[in-house]
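Slide 14.
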Amino acid sequence: MWRLALGIFLSILPQRWRDALRLNESVPWEPATVLSGFAESLLALILLLYWYSRSVTTWAANALDSALRDGPESAVPGQAIGFSALVLWTLHPLTWLIAYFILEGLVRLLAAAFTDQIFGTFPLAFIDWCYGKATRRPPEGDSLHTPGTRAQLQSVFSTLKEKIIVSRLPELEDELVESTRAGESFVEIHASRPKPEWVPPRVVRIGDAYFRLEQLSQGKSPRPFVFALRRLAAGVPGRSVILYQAPRTLD
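Slide 15: predicted structure.
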């Protein structure tokens, strides 16, 4: 339990800082980040409601008080005073700052729940980035291959889209479509479920034949996941080869 509680607080740190703590194996980062993202969004939402009640009420009350004393607001209708206070609250930088943390918490929650990615909070990540630039720190470890923020967000949303598609489809047996082009044999595997390890150009063994995974594409329901493979003249068994049990024998 203490590890989960510790992970809730430490998951907001950038990955480099978490790695320095050497707690990767002892902390359940995914569930801890889900709870951390939920708590961040919830606290930010409560703060946003508090900020709304205090600011809009105070601004509207001050404007009405000024109008009653024949101040500049006396020429403004009472309804317009309330609306102007709401517009001012909407445009206020603090409103946008709090709203950002609501959105960040949701992104961190969804990323950990559906893609197993642990995102720290952006302000700390920005501080770490500035420190790295100031000290000319070279990238190391996973930072050499870490995609940018845009690529990470695209990965999160594409994974969420995939989860939604899968949840609506029945689990069916794969369908294989064989074809020949320019003297080469190709096989398309139409599946109702994704195959996470199938990343081009992985080699796939089907029976005694070897294929190279050429392309992933989206097909039609109920088998929207299409894997295009090209038959190889020969293959070498190894740990990196994917062993696939075909629902039928290939020609």
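Speaker note: The longest helix spans residues 29-68.
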